[in-house]
Amino acid sequence: MDKGYLVLETGDIYEGTWIGSQAKASGELVFNTSMTGYQEILTDPSYAGQIMTFCYPLIGNYGVNSLDNESAALHPEAVIISDLCTMPSHYLSIKGFSDHLESEGIPGLCGIDTRAIVKKIRKQGTMKAIISKTPDVQFDTSVDDATSLVQTVSTKQSYTIENDGLHVVLVDYGFKKSMLTALTDTGCKVTVVPYDTTFNKIKSLNPDGVMFSNGPDDPVKLAHLFKEVKAITKHYPSLGICLGHQMIALSYGSKTDKLLFGHRGANHPVKEVLTGKVWMTSQNHSYVVTEDSINEEIFTVTYRNVNDKSIEGLKHNHLPIETVQFHPEAHPGPDDTQHIFNRFIESMKACKGDRTNAITY
């Protein structure tokens, strides 16, 4: 296999062995600490625009199957791993890791000291990087960062999964299949709509509740949608997850900030403020809602990250709105917090048929 190079915008260069597609790639260099779940990570739309570094040393040992994709495509720009397993062993495996990358047009490097990469990111923060067949590369400083990657991963047309239960509109910022499954498994009828769907359009669908999904990039790039998000949440029981959590907070006047290196992994401890109970969660985000921007007359903080005390959840003080920064459907990761979906279902049942008492701020 050919040699390849990971070049950071700091000037650091790491040599490895090329895997996957032969295409050159650039993106934001991040890392994930999950020990398993590489297939789910690759197909999570929240990783659009990023170069994913897998911390776990051996990747590909159970191959790739036809069941665990979280979307129809691979979303990272490229992947960086330490050791590649070329002889996977699992009864559901249909292809190897490198073959999977190649078939989807995603390049990668193996044989990289991923510990050194993680230490670099933890010290200096996520940064731009390029993987190339030569270390002599130039970073494009003219790239337009104003356009949100959500536009590239969101559905272009609305569609409905029929069921006999409550009707949920899922606003698609880049949702994972497991989130949809968490709703349909409870009997919900789900209508998936594009990220920029207006309040009036959602009103015409007559849902019982609205869920705002995870997704990539800086939520402030979607500031033109805050007014619509606020109108929707004032009218319907709402659940925001990850980017959806940030979008709801921003729509009510809160602010967000970018973490130095983000939270990406399947074992992040989150403390429930009311009970003191600690839940293990799956996370994938760079941005958080800032503490001093929250209006305590509107929102109560419900969860905090045990490691850095950042805000992991909010609950509206008057309206049936809950938001969480982590992924309660947990693919990959623990399913400790799937009860959050159950609370959403119960809030819809409690509010069903009553849309007349929305409180305005």
Provide a descriptive summary of the structure in words.
There is one protein chain. With 361 residues, the protein is α/β, with parallel strands linked by helices. 20% of the residues lie in helices and 31% in strands. The protein contains nine helices and 19 strands. It has helices at residues 38-42, 97-103, 114-124, 150-153, 177-184, 199-205, 226-235, 243-251, 339-351; strands spanning 3-8, 13-20, 25-32, 50-54, 58-59, 78-80, 83-84, 107-110, 127-132, 159-161, 167-172, 189-194, 209-212, 238-241, 256-272, 278-289, 299-305, 311-316, 321-324. The strands form three sheets. Strands 10-12-11-13-14-19-18-17-15-16 form a ten-stranded mixed β-sheet, sandwiched between helices. Strands 1-2-8-6-4-3-9 form a seven-stranded mixed beta barrel. A two-stranded parallel ribbon has the order 5-7. The longest helix has 13 residues, at 339-351. The chain is globular, with a radius of gyration of 20 Å. Residues 356-361 have low confidence and may be disordered.
Strand arrangement in the largest pleated sheet: 10-12-11-13-14-19-18-17-15-16
Q: Which percent bin holds the helix content?
A: 10-25%
Low-pLDDT residue spans: 356-361
The percent range for strand residues is 25-35%
Structural class: alpha/beta
Return the string of H and E elements. Answer: EEEHEEEEHEHEHEEHEHEHEHEEEEEH
As a whole number of angstroms, the C-alpha radius of gyration is 20 Å
State the distance separating the first and last CA atoms: 60 Å
Give the strand tally.
Answer: 19
Report on the biggest sheet. 10 strands, mixed
Mean pLDDT: 94
Shape, principal axes of CA atoms: globular
- The tally of helices reads 9
